[in-house]
Design brief:
Order of helices and strands: EEHEEHHEEHHEH
Strand content: 15-25%
Strand order of the largest sheet: 1-4-3-2-5-6-7
Radius of gyration: 16 Å
Largest sheet: 7 strands, mixed
Oligomer: single chain
CATH architecture: 3-Layer(aba) Sandwich
Length: about 210
Amino acid sequence: MILVSACGDSRIHSHAVYMLVDTSGTYAQEMNKASKIVNYLLATLNPGDSLAVAKVETRSFTEKDIIAKVTFDKRPSQATSQKRRFKNNIEVFAKQVKGSAYTDITGGLIQGAEYLNETKAGIKTIVVFSDMQQELGKGTIRDFPIRLDGIRIVALNVTKLGTDNADPRRYLDRLAQWEASVRKAGATDWVVVNDLENNIESILATR
């Protein structure tokens, strides 16, 4: 994990983003798209904002899955340097990423909420770059209520599985179930963005 820190004062108008990147199975091949999303976030977030990128693996409720995290310095020149280092760290990870056997999205959401709440940011967003097909390994328990109070959830690049093509209801039901789950957990919004070329601005909320 690469940690880049900076001091900050009032966080009420700041934005904190926690991005989960699915590395399971063939979805790990989508890392180039994920890197482009990270670059967009780096270009858009301001001094005083926070960003973390973590991988979704077999069990994702752990800080060990955080690839890089940073709170950008209030000084623009320092923030620019931090963004450059952050980008380099993600590029290194993208070149050596290996697919995991299972996909613990729920654990990643819990870890993301913990990180965002610690930032004290006024606007909190979890970005999930995944097909949203959760597959838990033996002994991984996630069937309990979680808390996502005050957090926006944005699902990106929700690719359709082969079984979805055979029966589109599986895809639609998967998204509907996730929306119901995160809203029940207190999320303020649920957004799905598949057209990354034209709707990438939908990732971040207006300040």
